[in-house]
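re: ur question from the group chat, yeah i did fold both. here u go
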Amino acid sequence: PASYSRAMFACSTPDAPLSPYLLANRAYTLTQMGRYVDAEAGYRMGAEVARQQGAALIVYSIRMCVVELCVEQGRTEDAECELRAAESEQTVEAPEDSPANYARQLAEARLALLKGDSDAAVRVYSKALEGEQASAGTIDAMLGRASAYRQAAALDLALADAQKALDFARRFQGRKPASFRTGLAWLALARLE
């Protein structure tokens, strides 16, 4: 987070305000570190900056990150409330293949899984995975669907998704010695064995 903070303020001038992307990326890093309160504040700041810049789809995408954060903490009611608020504030329709729409699909699937509705989670994750490509979001969706299949006791399907997520994560990792998504895929496989 310190390097994101330095980058945010180094790039910020009166002519070039703070970047909502940098704020959201910093918040994501804080989430991965388990610093949920700081992460939520960072996401909300990123959404506010995007709102001030008139970037409605960025606001929506960042608010989906808040939904995911609430789900991560098991805060079902807060996640549902944030999802409804984001949808009511949305002033621009997100194209079907946009990152904002993809973020909404993943948030809805994780929320369904948290509520114990594995069938709904599988449907939403499957829709998100149409046109699979090796990307961070695809790996996250595969791991999510593997969890939904595991919850539904469809262990062969869960294992197949976890293995495919591992393959994608390794490809996505490239020559880096470690990747948290690769680690998450290994964890998903371990949970199934």
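okk and heres the other one u asked abt
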Amino acid sequence: QDGDYLLELSDEDGDGGDNEWFFLFLYQTGEDTSYPVESEDNNQPIQANVLEATEYSNSSGDYTLSYGLGFADPTVELDKGGKEVVTADEDWYAIEAFDDGYMVLCMNSSAFGSAITPDVAIIDPDGETVLAAAEGEEDEDPTAALENIEVSGGDTYYVKVNSPESAEGTAQEWYEFMLYVADFEIGSYGCPP
């Protein structure tokens, strides 16, 4: 909406200091786009977050668009000796292909200030990896792009995101993606800003 806005940030005590900082990510588009935040536990296919797909059409045919936003949430447990054991986070998302066609996933993270560059893969209904990008490309826009994966209508496909072993679960360890499913080969597409 047009107008002037004022944004004021402070810590919970209202003071601040040299060792305190914020990460603020603002953007505005002409569309009403929001990224649904993952909900844990989604560490395996049976727990996958189901992506909401919005339907669109253009001169090439029909397509759906889904958004995802996730965070590195490593698991910390104690072994029998009392030593901390950290397991890297693995996030799963599910999408049903509405028709035979193609899928494109575009992910951004480190290019826009995230402290992680996760691995991302598309998994088919049989549990096989169709296409993967290992750790994306740091400081590249997009961080990772998996393009024109053939899909079968009615089948469920999965997006698997593995956070790096070094992730600590802090607020600056995030990723976002856009996932397209189309009944035509996708020649151009948008990525998360």
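fwiw on the second one: The mean pLDDT is 82. The first strand starts at residue 49 and ends at 50. idk if thats what u expected
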